[in-house]
Design brief:
By secondary structure, the protein is mainly alpha-helical. The protein contains 7 helices and no strands.
């Protein structure tokens, strides 16, 4: 197998098809990443508004998320490294989920169906993290998070995934 081969059994006739398929998948992943990061920013902006409306600092959510690394001391700190770490961790999570969403659903041409799938993904991710992952990895998050804001934030995230998660090449083709 040479360095430039994609697969041993790909004939020259099928090579362009294989490359095009890989290119579409990569494009969907990139579009999903973009949608996931934008959705993550929108979600954190909403959570910051809820925190300020409740008389707390806008950094409450990133610091709570960073307690995964810093422990409970992140909750009593103001703006600092825990805030930056929480933002970064959040964007890694939302970007990764966005990539998976783009790969899985980026070829869907009906915008309404894609938005619905995005909302379901946002709600599903909320349920998985709130009831399974956070209790295992960071039990402080379900205890200290403001559930209505978190649920609404995940819906906004899912809306962004669905609305922005369609590959531009797929949208132009259909």
């Amino acid at each position: 197998m040479s360095f430039y081969s994609v697969k041993e059994n790909v004939s020259p006739e099928n090579f362009s098809t294989e490359v095009a398929q890989g290119s579409r998948t990569l494009g969907r992943a990139a579009t999903g990443l973009e949608a996931g990061v934008i959705g993550g920013i929108a979600m954190f902006a909403l959570l910051a508004l809820f925190s300020v409306a409740r008389g707390r600092g806008w950094w409450e959510s990133p610091n709570l998320l960073s307690s995964t690394f810093y422990g409970p001391r992140a909750l009593s700190r103001g703006i600092g490294m825990p805030t930056i770490s929480g933002w970064a961790f959040h964007l890694v999570i939302t970007g990764t989920l966005g990539c998976l969403f783009g790969i899985s659903f980026g070829s869907i041409r009906q915008r309404g169906r894609l938005v619905l799938l995005g909302l379901v993904t946002g709600l599903g991710w909320y349920a998985l993290t709130e009831w399974v992952l956070w209790p295992l990895f960071n039990p402080l998050i379900p205890v200290y998070s403001f559930t209505p804001a978190l649920l609404f934030g995940h819906l906004v995230y899912g809306l962004c995934l669905g609305y922005l998660g369609q590959s531009r090449h797929e949208a132009l083709a259909g």
